[in-house]
Specification:
Structural class: alpha+beta
Order of helices and strands: EEEEEEHEEEEEHEEHEE
Number of strands: 15
Shape: globular
Number of domains: 2
Strand content: 35-45%
Helix content: 10-25%
Length: about 240
């Protein structure tokens, strides 16, 4: 998945109101940019951090720049959570993901006023409900964690995935880690114990797990390698 425009470098001043941040550009000017990330961005949104912005010339947009990447120790980290589904969709289209499906649909209604990210169809097996979660948090070298803040929506999704298994379908949660310095994944139970409970219940009821990192550059983001799972059972 390629970025629409060439990225430009900036330095983070502060992030606020979740979807806004003030940034100093290389020419010294200060701009307010859009942040497409509803999470806390724990350990990432630190003043002085080197970041990368995508400019746009759309007169309908209030802000001229969108925050796309963080650069820490020569490692890029994806900020835009909307890209997780785009990266996975590209991988599904190219059949570069470890699921041998026949075809798929996106954004299919299910559960209680929810939409599953992808519904995969198989020639012989039941359909698979595939939910994608964007992961950026890392508090320990090599270990990614999800979530980075309390997620009522995430808890709801885990419960709904478990329900689909009970109804005879397949369900999979795919954690897409938008960084390349990770080898394992764990659930951050100290941040959201209710999500941990719903996650454990879903796994016990047959929900499967997939986890991939990303290949990230200033040009774009693509699906990387499949990762080991720490404190996670029942992987695909």
């Amino acid at each position: 998945m390629k970025f629409e425009s060439s990225l430009i470098k900036g330095t983070l001043i502060k992030r606020y109101k979740r979807f806004l941040a003030d940034v100093t550009l290389e020419n010294g000017s200060v701009v307010t940019v859009h942040v497409a990330n509803p999470g806390s961005m724990l350990e990432l949104a630190k003043p002085g951090t080197k970041i990368w912005l995508e400019p746009n010339n759309n007169p309908k947009r209030k802000l001229k720049y969108s925050w796309k990447l963080i650069e820490i120790d020569n490692t890029f980290i994806g900020v835009d959570t909307n890209y997780a589904n785009k990266v996975v969709k590209e991988a599904l289209d190219n059949k570069t993901i470890d699921i041998n499906f026949d075809k798929y649909k996106s954004e299919v209604k299910y559960g209680e006023n929810s939409r599953i990210d992808f519904l995969l169809y198989f020639k012989k097996d039941p359909e698979m409900y595939l939910e994608v979660k964007s992961v950026t948090l890392s508090r320990k070298e090599g270990l990614a964690e999800f979530p980075d803040s309390i997620t009522l929506r995430g808890t709801k999704h885990m419960n709904e995935l478990a329900q689909k298994v009970k109804e005879g379908y397949q369900s999979t949660i795919l954690f897409l880690i938008q960084r390349s310095d990770i080898t394992k994944l764990s659930i951050a139970s100290d941040i959201d114990p209710n999500y941990q409970k719903s996650y454990d219940n879903a796994i016990a009821n047959g929900v499967k797990v997939l986890c991939y990192d990303c290949i990230i550059s200033k040009d774009g983001i693509a699906l990387g390698k499949r990762l080991d799972l720490a404190n996670v059972i029942n992987s695909v």
